[in-house]
Amino acid sequence: MLAPKKLIKKYLWLCASLILLLNGCVPQRSYEAALILADTAAREAPSRWKSTTPTPSQAGVTYTVAGRTHQGTLYLPAAAPPRAGIVLVPGVVPLGKDDPRLVAFANTLARARFAVLTPELKEFQHLQVRTRHPRVIADALAYLADRPDLVPSDHLGFGAFSFSVGLAVIASLEEDIRAQVQFIFGVGGYYDLETAIRFFTTGYLSESEHDLEPSQYGKLIFAATSLKYLTNPADRAVLKEMINIKIRNPDADITFLAPRLGPQGKAVYSLLNNTDPAQVSPLIQALPQGLRQLIENLSLSNQDLTPIQAQVILVHGKDDPLIPYTESIALANALPPKQAKLYIIEQTLTHVDFKFRSFFTPAFWSHELPDLWRMYRAIYLLLGKRAPTDP
């Protein structure tokens, strides 16, 4: 009997082979897309992609754009020059650009001859989002665009996960880089922040769909982000204590702290503990003005998206517990015709984590194989954004 790791490797390679058979041919890009698909599921574990491509280089970089200084990590292919550049942005996670999942995917893409830059967003380590983040992301692409010695200048784009998909879309609207963004690859993103907030606080999706459990992680991000906008130090202290308790134990009771909150703190607390979808809009209107402005500024539904010139490749899991898949549908519909490609993953993608959950069962044929095909097509499109192969 095969050991579990060996079985998983054989299973992933079989999936890749099946995709190639479905495609009917094995040109280089198809072959690479299949290997990358299997490697993405493997993460840090061994894979055929890792064994057949050299390990990329990885180095910290400091760069300045229009007087703004940033830091990041640059991944470069080891054996040949990059054929494209991508700014890769994680979701709001404490490790930020150093999250193992992002590091693994950055290496995967660098093996495919992308120059991958992961910018540092310091507030992410505190689960906080700022209005300046789209500019930080845009500056990372401006840095790559200013390095024609490193990256083909007409093959640049963004890759983003979760909440950062919206940040990357807003970044692509910045006038100084707008024409240089050829693609946006987004997994699990949002379109309308009020809809996303309604979903992760109440679990409500629509009248025709089953409600899900509210997302405790989404509530943590919102609560942590709100701290900056509370003018009462006592409110900040109490809410921070609530956050710390929930980080240690998501099921912990924090109601005993609620009476210590002032008006602004209570407004945040009331929104995050509300269970009635109809009350979300008025509860948002009761938030501190700065926090309301943040929601308005970062909501894509408030943006004119027509200037975007990039092709947008969207992937979203139907079972996403943090941002509903309908948000990627809404974003795709808001973009100019034929500019967006959308792939809804039925079962094998939970928010930003891609995994297989069955081995040679009926579910493999009915759900996992179709999901693999959708993921393969998204990766195939992304690989097509590279410059042509060397002569």
What does this structure look like?
α13 links the parallel β7 (311-317) and β8 (340-345). The chain has helices at 4-23, 28-42, 48-52, 100-111, 133-145, 164-171, 193-202, 216-226, 233-248, 263-273, 280-285, 289-298, 326-334, 362-383, and strands spanning 57-65, 68-76, 84-89, 114-119, 156-161, 183-187, 311-317, 340-345, 349-350, 353-354. It has two domains: 6-192 and 308-383, Rossmann fold, CATH 3.40.50; 203-298, no CATH class. The protein starts with a helix and ends in an 8-residue tail after the last helix. It is an alpha/beta fold and 391 residues long. It contains 14 helices and ten strands. Helix content is 43%, strand content 15%. The strands form two sheets. The protein has an eight-stranded mixed β-sheet with strand order 1-2-4-3-5-6-7-8, with helices on both faces. Strands 9-10 form a two-stranded antiparallel ribbon. α5 (133-145) packs across α6 (164-171). Residues 1-24 form the signal peptide. Keywords: Signal. This is Alpha/beta hydrolase.
